[in-house]
Amino acid sequence: MLHSVVQTVELAANTAGATRVEAVGLRVGTQTGAIPEALEAAWPLAIAGTFLDGARLDLEFLQAAVWCPTCNAEQDIDEFYALTCPVCGTPSGNLVRGREFEVTYADMDVQ
Length: 111
Ligand SMILES: [Zn+2]
What we know:
Helix content is 24%, strand content 36%. The protein has 111 residues and is α+β, with helices and mostly antiparallel strands. The mean pLDDT is 94.
């Protein structure tokens, strides 16, 4: 998954004429199954030898949530549970967040 992040940022840096990338913001939802520690550990390997070499990874993890029609509210769900409201138990396939895996920003030096 990080490979596509590196490609995305490399393309953006190339387009902007950047000389180096300082940091990359990545927003990840818990429903993606991604583990923060694993992403942190994989990052140096993913960027080694690329234009991003040495860039910092700023991870933002989003707790997944469903819209519950019974509670009439958003309810955070545990990543290992099925898509049901944790408060009242109503099944809800209406995931309002949690599947994100997106670059939110890239801090880069531009000459
Ligand atoms: Zn509910």
